[in-house]
Design a protein that fits this description.
By secondary structure, the chain is of the alpha+beta class. It is about 25% helix and about 30% strand. The chain has one domain: RutC-like (60s Ribosomal Protein L30, Chain: A, 2-Layer Sandwich), CATH 3.30.1330.
Length: about 130
């Protein structure tokens, strides 16, 4: 099956050899998004809530370019530099998703690009 790239100008440009997302068949794989402001290309300054909101807004922009919404998301992967931020990111995620919620993993990592506190990727399945 062909791999079809998905791009949104309303999300940060890829900073390496990857696509913001790709569709293969009825599955869409989203690359990890960090809290980069697409207008400036700079990391959003602020606490974990502000950073998580920017990440979900970036993912939402890529989802819109794929002509889907978060209701189509089957899995979310969250990478945090501090698991003490788990509850705060949960609260932000609850603003973007409704039950039945997607499957999810949350992993603490040593570091993320540009000093971000959070990175999130997703997988969506469409009809």
């Amino acid at each position: 099956m062909p791999r079809n790239p998905i791009h949104s100008d309303s999300a940060p440009k890829a900073i390496g050899p990857y696509s913001q997302a790709v569709s293969i068949g009825n599955t869409i794989y989203f690359s990890g998004q960090t809290p980069i402001d697409p207008a400036t290309g700079e990391l959003v300054v602020g606490d974990i809530v502000k950073q998580a909101v920017q990440v979900f807004e970036n993912l939402k922009a890529v989802a819109a370019a794929a002509q889907i919404n978060f209701g189509d998301v089957a899995r979310v992967g969250i990478y945090l530099t501090d698991l003490a931020n788990f509850a705060a990111v949960n609260a932000v995620m609850a603003d973007y998703f409704q039950a039945p919620y997607p499957a999810r993993s949350t992993i603490e990592v040593k570091g993320l690009p540009k000093g971000a506190q959070v990175e999130i990727d997703m997988v969506a399945v469409v009809d």
